[in-house]
Amino acid sequence: MIVFLFLLSVVLLVLLSDELIDALVRFGKEVGWSDFFIGFFMLALGTSLPELMSMLVSSIEGAGLLGLGTVVGSNITNVLLVIGFISLLTPLDKLGKSDRRDAGFLIVSTFVFVLLLIDGELSRLDGGILLTMFIMYYALFHTKFNVSVGHVRLRDVFYDSIIIALSLAGVVLAAWVTVDTALLIIKQYSISMAVFGATAVAIGTSLPELVTSISAVKKRRKNITSGNIIGSNISNILLVAAVGAVISPIHFSNWMMLAFMLVSTIAYAYLSSRRELNKVVGVIFLAMYIVFLLAVFSP
User: Fold this and answer.
1) What are the residue ranges in the chain where pLDDT is below 70?
2) Is 57 in contact with 243 (CB distance < 8 Å)?
3) Please, are residues 199 and 296 in contact by the beta-carbon 8 Å criterion?
4) pTM here?
5) CATH tag, 35-147+190-297
6) What is the enclosing helix (H) or strand (E) of 182?
7) Are the C-beta atoms of residues 105 and 232 closer than 8 Å to each other?
8) Domain regions of the chain by residue span
9) Would you state the pLDDT for residue 167?
């Protein structure tokens, strides 16, 4: 029964995420937003909600290590698995000027996150620092974005707003059930919370990023993919991890995972800022992800 619920929740997660991208693209067209704005702000925050919900639940239940492992694993999965897989489907264009700025900020955020964990704990003060960075960055982001609004049909905007809200709620609920049932299944194998969070939960909560990226490619809107991944990873570090730490300090000392996150982030930001990400890059990223899985599960 648990396995059936897990599979059902994954299917719902895929279907609802696809509906979400459709509604967001329609909504963006109606109000004149750019593809990158849709991807970076709305989709990135929306696809970080599964990680945020799992972090809230795990922190409240005194298992913050599970949530933090999910954050680290999700950022690794987004870059190495999602970007790697998408690059096999179609070359991803070199990042533009504003995209490079966002990728640079992702590197800074990752460095700060790793530095705050040098003492092996993400404290409430550390969480406050990350949240402050999150608020400041989005304030700067909004002031620098010029959103053009053309003729708006209020009926269409209202309809798509409802679809977005319902789809997003469904994605969050489906991701929650995915994580919950996966936890019940994997517990019997006595895997550490950090490893479990960085693999099973991270893969489950990264499904929206993968599905929305595939949908964006199918709809010839590749710009959404970069904004989606960059924005989601920034939100994971500065919002999700920060909220968990503010609720309850988290002890984390798996430097191998942190090293993989830092290296994969730098590799993605560097390569995508200088060239298109083709099949060769995709194969390299996927190979790195396999090495990551082998490393975390090695005795």
Assistant:
1) 14, 34-47, 141-153, 222-223, 299
2) no
3) yes
4) 0.81
5) 1.20.1420.30
6) helix 154-187
7) no
8) 35-147+190-297
9) 87
